[in-house]
Amino acid sequence: MSDGIESILPPAVAIILALATRRVLIPLLLGIVVGTALLANRNADGVSDVLLGTLTGAYQTIDQSVRDWDHLHVLAFTMLLGAMVGVLESAGSMARMISGWTRRVASRIGGQTLIGFTGLLIFFDDYANTLLVGGTMRTTADRYGISRAKLAYLVDSTAAPVAGLTLVSTWVATELSYLQQGLADAGLDASSQTFSVFLQSLPYRFYPLLALWFVFLVATSGRDFGPMWNEEHAALKSTKKHSLDLSTGRWSDTFAAVVPVLVCLAAILGVLVWTGTPQTIDPDMSFGQLIGDIVGSGNSYLALVAGGAAGLFVAGVLAVLLSGVSWELVVMGSAKGMWQMMPAMAVLWLAWGLSSLTGSDQLNTGGYLASVLNDGLPIELLPTSVFLLAAFIAFATGTSWGTMAILTPIAVALSIKLQQAPSATLASLSADSIAAGIIPAIGLESLHVNNAQSLATSPICLATFSSVLAGAIFGDHCSPLSDTTVLSSRACGCDHVLHVRTQMPYAMIVGIACIVFGTLPASWGISPWVSLFAAGFLLWVALRFLGRRPDGNSD
């Protein structure tokens, strides 16, 4: 079903109210009510039917969002990881280990760089990245006077970008399936070309690459601007309020703090490989393609739960054996860690409900927005238009995965078909040549096939495909409805709306650089490496002019 402009009303209500009130739960709930009211009004005979349908629909939407099996896995993983972090905090091993690091990391710049680098290490899943890094680095942030808003930014702006760039992540199989569908819709033999197109598209993922670059520019320069500068300045003034055991960390503290995290990661990867390994392996697959396909095809939700449970169990055992705490304290720490996650669970619950209302079987918000892509669009503007549209869909719906599902097949097929249009004249001339006996008929068929296959790896197609994921992550970083934004703010102990307000200016400046030096030049065939270098230099200059150090020191 294709809906009109009213389909964007529920997410618009939720977003505007969330930003205006600096609250999330009530705006999300009102967004759900508006959505169910629109759906109830379609078949209602009177006001009473609309009211009854609205209330019934709202209850069913919220109930179904938490009953979803995949959602339950995410909730379970979040609670288990919160419990693991709670055990590490109650045992004190993490704090003592961080204290030992202070001799090697002696500044706020070093602390921020350490947080950003840690985010790169957990590259295979954005949920695991957000919760692990955010939960374990709060002590580091407090020690060096880094605000929780800055911590949330460093965590959130590395989680999805790094997961969207690596070949071994829970995103890969989903991206490949949508890409293959788009290539098939364009009339290509998608099975033989999908992975090649995917690999060649990586340098065109301007926003994830530049977002990571900007994270380390901000971290290593110590400069900030906008609302983030205010938070950093306030955190720096209150650094003395944070107490930390400055004794040198023992090897047992490091072991007790690091091993649970490593076990969690190992369990996640192990379950991904176990559930993703096919019964028969295609002999034509390269080793890299095979690993990416196995990890991407694995049951990521089951893997997350298994990893969280394994990490919690190991954390509890090591806390008793090495840190000398009682099992009672372990249980209390687990309960405290879980309780800290409860506000995030409530937000996720409602955000999932609102997202379901925007789906293709309900209000079809994404379908309406995707209708902007039509055959009259100038092909030179296609990558930029797709980037902006993906960003808006992700911003309005709060889901980058849903955005990719909506846009990727459409955008890929459209990018090839729009390029095929100018070749109509060539096809006509070739047909005339066949009639004149100049070239054989089989030559025309080969010409069409080869032309279509070459268009799939053209800069226009590669940039358009990459713009879907890049725009989706950009929209997620700006949206208060995004699940990863919610998890980042909660895992880092930061107010959710404050996280959105402080991160948005940074995401916006990176997004502008992506358009000016990325998607637009790519349409004219300029190398993505040249674009990345130019955009990276622009971001460095922008930070030098806009940013200043919260401690008042000059470089």
What distinguishing features does this structure have?
single chain; 26 helices; mainly alpha; 555 residues
Number of strands: 0
Residues in helices, as a percent range: over 70%
Categorize the overall geometry.
globular
What's the story with the biggest beta sheet? Answer: none
Radius of gyration: 25 Å
Q: Provide the structure class.
A: mainly alpha
Distance between the termini: 57 Å
Overall pLDDT, averaged?
78
β-strand percent reads under 5%
List low-pLDDT spans: 241-246, 424-431, 441-450
Query: How many helices?
Result: 26
Element-by-element helix/strand order: HHHHHHHHHHHHHHHHHHHHHHHHHH
Describe this structure in words.
With 555 residues, the protein is an all-alpha fold. The protein has 26 helices and no strands.
SSE topology:
Layout: H1 9-21, H2 25-43, H3 47-67, H4 69-91, H5 93-101, H6 108-121, H7 126-136, H8 138-143, H9 148-163, H10 172-185, H11 194-201, H12 206-221, H13 227-237, H14 251-276, H15 287-297, H16 300-321, H17 327-357, H18 365-370, H19 382-397, H20 400-420, H21 424-435, H22 441-456, H23 459-478, H24 483-491, H25 496-523, H26 528-546
